[in-house]
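quick one before i forget lol
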Amino acid sequence: MSFPQRLMVFCVGVGLGALLAFYIIKNRGLSEREGPPTTLAEAEVEAVPKILQTYEERGEPMQSTFIVGEFTQPGPEVGTYRRVLVIEGRQPGQLLRIEELQRAQPNGPMKVEQWRVMAADRAVISLKSGVKPASLREALAQYGYRLMRRGEEPGQYVISLGAHEPETVDLAIERLGALGPQITAVTPDYLDKPTEQP
């Protein structure tokens, strides 16, 4: 075999080796990406199963050093209380709002009967058919809100509320619901499904 042929075989081998090494490293990096989440949405969603598991196992009100705000008010029935709290996760900007429905127990601690986990700084609106979301920009801006993205269903849009206090979502639902008939529904941006303690 001549020198140019050996050089050609060597170059092809190096090229294939480099391509194979790149492919292995790239796929290995993807499989190891089970580390910290890369986006705020991933960080929020990652925390939800742990929170739900805590409620399912204990059935007690959340107690945590990660709670950054909360309020409690009377619930829909005598002896029940609605507690709303905002927790801050380990990731920067990871804020979740949790609503608990607690029931007073005779001679015992409060029991959490229902809970919901949602974004602390977002709400979801549903628009009447034919209404363009851009037509709401000015009305949203007066409260410091802004359109973020389309929701999961047709006509749904996720709204950034610009704050994350425990009262933020309730106030936004009241304000957005009063904007007129072009909005057919306003809900929190739930990150879980309705659950109830058996």
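fyi The domain at 40-119 is CATH 3.10.450 (Nuclear Transport Factor 2; Chain: A,).
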